[in-house]
């Protein structure tokens, strides 16, 4: 049976590894040729189309919903209110006492009260999407308007109307996680104290593919089959089963190709539940595709926060303390499963950032307002607090008469592991090295001399930060989440001809997991990566998984996949050693087979025995080739890090901002596929720039959204986003299976700080400092006009 | 974002289109590139019961030079103008870079832009600046409407519901003219747009009123020696502006000053 191994694949790295090689993406042939299969590509026989009657009021008692005219509209098949469908509410909980957290129920369809413009009130099902919209127009909804709560400060006002009766002062979360003893004395005696007050705009994570679902009841499997573009299919299954009253096994959620999620799709939405409930009721397939207007006004939004942060410094530039107050405007409801706590808890836990902060006090609040609810968005509070902390270093440098990069150098964590004042232990990173390299790169490129050209208004800004990735069960439990999405579980199987299929509880919504996960398996088993099939996004085929968010896929999912591969490898070695009469300990996985001494046996031959000639297997070894492994990150997870440097030129005549150069020096440990990592960084930076300079979901005083289209919601295009130079550093993670750290969010986290600092640096001669985003061009214009 | 139901009609000739418009009356809208109308229909902000598609009419597209006059067919796309070599009408080609993005320029038409009458649209500014005549055909035949009398208000024109724009006539070359704009994003409708013709002592602004606004220019001496900066100050100072949400009158006035100055610079170098 022994044979010769096949020749090496040209894509392998020189040392024979797949990990670390930017191999052609498995996804490319279909996605680049337009043969991907997204939710909206799915058409089922007899399929109906859903649209929603949505609230036109920001805050009102719902007196009556009359759907008679809707049901009489040509093409409309059915229309349901909350009372018609009678679905359980969606409620996300934290294990925190009532003075820290108030749970609020989110009904699938509004009941009794509406809390934001765009809130779904009724679902209309019709033969086509046109008729569905005609039906929506025919609905008659009677409101008794209430005074709306439109701003965070308005929500906290003593006499503010209540969005939820159970939440006094409209406060859903109020936590004070840290208060170092004696911190007031630190500030009282500090030679330099600086303060940043910063408000960040409300944003939309804006996946290009809007949300959507196709649901139908399968009589043979007695199962509600739901195809949806979710980052968390198992959680959709759990919530859907609960809402409609089915068992978990009676619901199958699968995820086809996805055009982005960025966090907006890592929570359970109301519309997919309502559309699925309608399909169940009608016993006909129902499709709902969110249109762009709804996506911009009624989808989960993000980012709106207010920071008041003071920092104390010694005369020689040592940071002595940080004192912070954070208010997050979460909109009308807590999202499932994360709750409204996700933003204030993230900011509170991690604000000391990459610096050695000896004293820390923080209060974090989440308030509810009559605006569309929020979900996590790539970065989750980190874009904001990193921006604030990096502004602090710029301001302190000015107050101290020091260079801001030098001031960072003096304070950045350099000895690892480092346990901070926030009780988090930081694993090794390259904080100082990334800062040095980023500055040196911009210096070499000549930007510092261009900055001193008096005829131009040029500024350079930096952002040095780390990003906790791979939150394990422990880290989430520390946040007191009732649902702890930490581990990942992987099942691997080798089939007859030696091909491998492996499940992952994570799923790609554009991040190339079919390639990167396959690279990991390929290295562990010594097979070409295109012999490995990744199975993801199917609740029937995958044991409970948590999906993809929080930069967890490669760190946790990739580790589980690697561990499962090793177990399968052990089986293969045992069988091969038996068949070749050698020692299993001496058996090596190599070139798509097992080498034992001078003999080599292909996986196909081993699989042949495992499945077709089981009588040849060693004693005690059962038929088949499969293994299961799980992975969880113990302790505090692993921290990726980066320094971003941005050069801007301001136009005194218009207040316009042009980004002349952007440099990102990133360290995500071992990069499985460097090109994919760079894509993540570039896309993330674009979203960070969007927040700093362009995008804002604004509301008027009545709570009406002012950005229902791309005319008003200013997503930057290729015209606004600069080319980004990316440099890699590599500090491998000691406790993930591949040495990888997460790479999904860093771009978005660093960019707002780097851009805002660069704009302020360009304004250095004006005495004006701008700390809010998106930066108003008029403010730049006025600053430069008066200087 | 699906339009309300409408009936589609395809016109094969100008007379046919006019006939349809006459027959269908106010409930009909002309569609060509569809870059504004279709978006408005998808939002159900426009709900015409009938669409008259004129894109299959021969002879409505193209650019013709006749002596000092330039005639541009209504179905000519922005992109076609952008790519054309127009000599001393080059301002038209250069201004096209401000019209949306490439896909919009490839589909959108000159006539459609004029008929839509957005107060910041490049074609509306250029038509007023260069004193173009808008040629419209209706049941009574053709008439020429001076651009200065064409734009009545936001999205409102002197065009009758049964008339079709067939052509734009630019009566004189403008070798020293330019259009420039500012918006936070490239390709957006301008916050303020300024178009100048140094030889005609004309400035037209977009974004400062309900229609393109012809601003007063100091008119002494020869146009060749006029310093652009004083023009810009005078134009900006002459406007009556109000504070609006997100943009103060002061900022808008500042943009006017900057853009008039820059348009003058571009016009004088012809680049």
From TrEMBL, chain A:
InterPro entries: Ald_Oxase/Xan_DH_a/b (IPR000674), Ald_Oxase/Xan_DH_a/b_sf (IPR036856), Ald_Oxase/xanthine_DH-like (IPR016208), AldOxase/xan_DH_MoCoBD1 (IPR008274), AldOxase/xan_DH_MoCoBD2 (IPR046867), AldOxase/xan_DH_Mopterin-bd_sf (IPR037165). Keywords: Molybdenum, Oxidoreductase. It comes from the Bacteria. The keyword S-adenosyl-L-methionine does not apply. The keyword Amino-acid biosynthesis does not apply. GO terms for molecular function: iron ion binding; oxidoreductase activity. Gene3D superfamilies: Aldehyde oxidase/xanthine dehydrogenase, a/b hammerhead, Aldehyde oxidase/xanthine dehydrogenase, molybdopterin binding domain. SUPFAM superfamilies: CO dehydrogenase molybdoprotein N-domain-like, Molybdenum cofactor-binding domain. Its cofactor is Mo-molybdopterin cytosine dinucleotide. This is Oxidoreductase large subunit. The lineage of its organism: Bacteria, Bacillati, Actinomycetota, Actinomycetes, Pseudonocardiales.
Automatic annotation (TrEMBL), chain B:
Keywords: FAD, Flavoprotein, Oxidoreductase. SMART domains: CO_deh_flav_C. Gene3D superfamilies: 3.30.465.10, CO dehydrogenase flavoprotein, C-terminal domain, Uridine Diphospho-n-acetylenolpyruvylglucosamine Reductase, domain 2. InterPro entries: CO_DH_flav_C, CO_DH_flav_C_dom_sf, Diverse_Substr_Oxidored, FAD-bd_PCMH, FAD-bd_PCMH-like_sf, FAD-bd_PCMH_sub1, FAD-bd_PCMH_sub2, Mopterin_DH_FAD-bd. Residues 1-175 form the FAD-binding PCMH-type domain. It comes from the Bacteria. SUPFAM superfamilies: CO dehydrogenase flavoprotein C-terminal domain-like, FAD-binding/transporter-associated domain-like. GO terms for molecular function: FAD binding; oxidoreductase activity. The keyword Endoplasmic reticulum does not apply. This is Carbon-monoxide dehydrogenase medium subunit. It comes from Pseudonocardia halophobica. The gene is cutM_1.
């Amino acid at each position: 049976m022994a044979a010769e191994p096949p020749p090496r694949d040209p894509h392998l790295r020189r040392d024979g590894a797949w990990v670390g090689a930017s191999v052609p993406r498995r996804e490319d042939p279909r996605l680049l040729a337009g043969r991907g299969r997204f939710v909206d590509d799915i058409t089922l026989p007899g399929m109906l189309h859903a649209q929603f009657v949505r609230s036109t009021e920001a805050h009102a008692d719902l007196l009556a919903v009359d759907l008679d005219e809707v049901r009489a509209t040509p093409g409309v098949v059915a229309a349901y209110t909350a009372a018609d469908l009678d679905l359980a509410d969606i409620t996300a909980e934290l294990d925190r006492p009532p003075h820290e957290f108030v749970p609020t129920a989110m009904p699938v369809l509004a009941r009794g009260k509406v809390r934001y413009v765009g809130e779904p009130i009724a679902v209309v099902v019709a033969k086509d999407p046109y008729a569905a919209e005609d039906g929506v127009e025919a609905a008659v909804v009677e409101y008794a308007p209430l005074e709306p709560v439109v701003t965070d400060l308005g929500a906290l006002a003593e006499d503010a109307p209540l969005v939820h009766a159970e939440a006094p002062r409209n406060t859903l979360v109020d936590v004070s996680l840290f208060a170092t003893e004696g911190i007031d004395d630190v500030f009282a005696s500090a030679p330099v104290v600086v303060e940043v007050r910063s408000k960040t705009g409300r944003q939309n994570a804006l996946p290009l593919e809007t949300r959507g679902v196709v649901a139908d009841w399968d009589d043979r499997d007695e199962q509600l089959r739901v195809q949806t573009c979710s980052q968390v299919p198992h959680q959709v299954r759990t919530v859907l089963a609960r809402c409609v009253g089915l068992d978990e096994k009676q619901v199958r959620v699968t995820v086809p190709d996805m055009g982005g999620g960025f966090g907006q799709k890592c929570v359970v939405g109301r519309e997919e539940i309502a559309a699925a409930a309608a399909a169940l009721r009608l016993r006909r397939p129902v499709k709902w595709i969110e249109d762009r207007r709804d996506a911009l006004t009624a989808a989960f939004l993000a980012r709106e926060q207010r920071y008041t942060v003071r920092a104390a410094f010694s005369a020689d530039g040592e940071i002595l303390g940080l004192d912070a107050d954070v208010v997050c405007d979460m909109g009308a409801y807590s999202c499932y499963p994360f709750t409204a706590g996700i933003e204030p808890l993230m900011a509170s836990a991690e604000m000391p950032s990459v610096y050695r902060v000896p004293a820390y006090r923080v209060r974090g609040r989440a308030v509810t307002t009559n605006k569309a609810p929020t979900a996590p968005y790539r970065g989750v509070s980190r874009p904001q607090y990193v921006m604030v902390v990096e502004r602090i270093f710029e301001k302190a440098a000015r107050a101290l008469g020091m260079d801001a990069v030098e001031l960072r150098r003096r304070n950045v964590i350099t000895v690892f592991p480092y346990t901070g004042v926030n009780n988090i232990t930081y694993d090794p990173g390259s904080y100082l090295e990334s800062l040095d390299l980023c500055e040196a790169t911009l210096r070499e490129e000549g930007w510092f001399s261009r900055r001193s050209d008096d005829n131009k208004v040029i500024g350079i800004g930096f952002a040095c930060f780390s990003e906790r990735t791979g939150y394990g069960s422990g880290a989430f439990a520390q946040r007191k989440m009732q649902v702890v999405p930490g581990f990942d579980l992987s099942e691997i199987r080798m089939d007859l001809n030696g091909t491998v299929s492996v499940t992952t509880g994570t799923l790609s919504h554009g991040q190339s997991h079919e390639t990167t996960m396959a690279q990991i398996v390929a290295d562990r088993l010594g097979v070409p990566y295109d012999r490995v099939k990744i199975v993801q996004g199917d609740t029937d085929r995958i044991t409970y998984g948590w999906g993809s968010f929080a930069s967890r896929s490669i760190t946790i999912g990739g580790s589980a996949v690697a561990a499962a591969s090793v177990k399968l490898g052990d089986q293969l070695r045992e069988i091969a050693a038996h068949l070749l009469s050698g020692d299993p300990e001496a058996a090596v996985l190599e070139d798509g087979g097992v080498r034992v001494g001078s003999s080599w046996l292909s996986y196909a031959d081993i699989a042949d025995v495992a499945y077709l000639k089981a009588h040849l297997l060693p004693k005690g070894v059962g038929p088949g080739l499969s293994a299961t492994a799980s992975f969880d990150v113990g302790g505090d997870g692993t921290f990726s890090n980066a320094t971003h440097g941005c050069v801007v030129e301001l136009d005194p005549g218009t207040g316009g901002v042009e980004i002349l150069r952007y440099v990102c020096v990133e360290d995500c440990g071992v990069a499985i596929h460097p090109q994919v990592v760079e894509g993540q960084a570039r896309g993330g930076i674009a979203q960070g720039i969007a927040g700093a300079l362009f995008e804002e979901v604004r509301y008027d005083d009545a709570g009406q959204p002012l950005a229902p289209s791309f005319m008003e919601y200013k997503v930057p295009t290729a015209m606004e986003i600069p080319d980004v130079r990316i440099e890699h550093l590599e500090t491998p993670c000691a406790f993930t299976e591949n040495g990888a750290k997460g790479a999904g969010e860093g771009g978005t986290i660093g960019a707002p700080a780097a851009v805002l600092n660069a704009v302020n640096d360009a304004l250095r001669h004006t005495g004006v400092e701008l700390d809010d985003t998106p930066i108003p061009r008029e403010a730049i214009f006025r600053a430069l006009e008066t200087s | 974002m699906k339009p309300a139901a409408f009936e589609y009609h395809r016109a094969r000739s100008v007379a046919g289109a006019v006939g349809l418009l006459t027959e269908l009356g106010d409930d009909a809208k002309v569609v060509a590139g569809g870059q504004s109308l279709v978006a408005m229909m998808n939002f159900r902000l426009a709900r015409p019961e009938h669409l008259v598609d004129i894109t299959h009419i021969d002879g409505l597209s193209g650019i013709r030079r006749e002596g000092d006059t330039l005639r541009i067919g209504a179905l000519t796309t922005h992109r076609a103008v952008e790519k054309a070599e127009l000599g001393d009408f080059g301002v038209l080609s250069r201004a096209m870079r401000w019209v949306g993005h490439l896909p919009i320029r490839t589909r959108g038409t000159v006539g459609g832009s004029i008929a839509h009458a957005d107060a910041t649209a490049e074609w509306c500014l250029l038509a007023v600046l260069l004193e173009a005549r808008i040629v419209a055909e209706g049941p009574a035949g053709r008439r020429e409407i001076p651009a200065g009398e064409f734009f009545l208000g936001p999205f409102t024109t002197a065009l009758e519901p049964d008339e079709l724009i067939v052509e734009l006539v630019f009566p004189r070359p403008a070798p020293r003219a330019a259009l420039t704009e500012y918006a936070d994003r490239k390709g957006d409708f301008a916050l303020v747009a300024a178009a100048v013709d140094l030889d005609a002592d004309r400035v037209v602004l977009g974004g400062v009123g309900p229609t393109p606004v012809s601003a007063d220019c100091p008119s002494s001496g020869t146009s060749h020696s006029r310093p652009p900066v004083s023009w810009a100050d005078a134009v900006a100072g002459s406007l009556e502006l109000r504070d609006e949400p997100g943009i103060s009158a002061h900022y808008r006035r500042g943009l006017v000053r900057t853009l008039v100055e820059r348009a003058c610079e571009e016009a004088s170098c012809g680049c």
